[in-house]
Request: fold
Amino acid sequence: MAEEKISKEVVESYIFSTVRHDFGIYSERLLLRLVELAQREIRGLDFKGGSSIGKVKVGEWGDAEITIPVKDILSGEDDKNYVKAKSAVRALMGKFLEYEDEKNYKATHILNDVDVDKVAGKMVIQVNRNIWNAMLDFSKGFRKYELETAVKLRGKYSLRIYKLVSKQIDPISYSIADLRKMWGLTEKYKKVDDFVKNTIVSAKEELDRVSPYSFDYVLTASRSADVNKNRKGRPSITSVTFFPKHVLRNESTDAVRKSVNSSMLLDREVTDLLVNKLGFDLVGIRANISVLDNAQREFDLFEFLQKIASAALRATNPQGYVINAIKKNLSEKHGIIIQDGGIISKPAGESKPAPKNEPLSLAEILGTKGEK
Reply:
């Protein structure tokens, strides 16, 4: 198995991730790289290093000079004439970024000057001190996301929502009006159905397909008589709630194993087979961890899964088929009956002992005994 690349984790200030702007995807990627490099200025947080040849120099007035490779904003795409890079630069230089709370309103040009060296394949960017400070401002919280996933996303709304839901658990609600302002769409997609279709639905489709973090959503209609005055049919949709979800099939095997089991008791090939071929997600693995753990101790679980994979995939519920087949094998051939996450009966002295210096049970580590 080829060595897997570990994703760089970026932490972006909540203020900067929710400011009101509507940039193209290449401009968004350029902003991602700026945030990544800004983190080198942070102290007390364990951040990864930035781009291999990227560098930061902060002047005495707080303005920052950033040097990055042009390829960093292309995600493997061809741009021999630097058309996309120049487009990203022009978009950011031609717009300003707004931030407003209860006490303050700020409007600032994002980039002061940009010098693209076509021969060396790099760009030198002068960043306004207010923008630089916004990238460093964690006073109102922050969001984590993987840089490699963010950069490869094609849709700008996919990227914006990905940064909101990545590594999140709790639902996130916004009014449609606030989303319009945040995304610069106050004059576009006037009908709510068009707005939802071209932003939320399209983003969900891409994130479900390629991202380890996606979302489900619920639209909420207003109950206000004034808002629904003169409307025919359904009430007016005024808000949306995003429900973050972890799409395990889009996650690297190493990341899956880290999420499921920090002690690495499930073999790598078992985890990979469960996720990539048999369709298990994190919830499904955790819910059945006692079954999987005991099966791996008693017999060659990987070989067993390979044998039943074809039949499982033809079943109405492949995951249920797999777990029931494992339980049956444990019961009939090893005398182990597992019910409600715990072992009901087990022949004394017949189970294989856990290796020395390792935890006795994956279920014990995760605290999933009794979990379904």
Summary: The longest strand covers residues 237-246. Residues 1-6, 43-53, 350-372 have pLDDT under 50 and may be disordered. Residues 192-210 form the longest helix (19 residues).
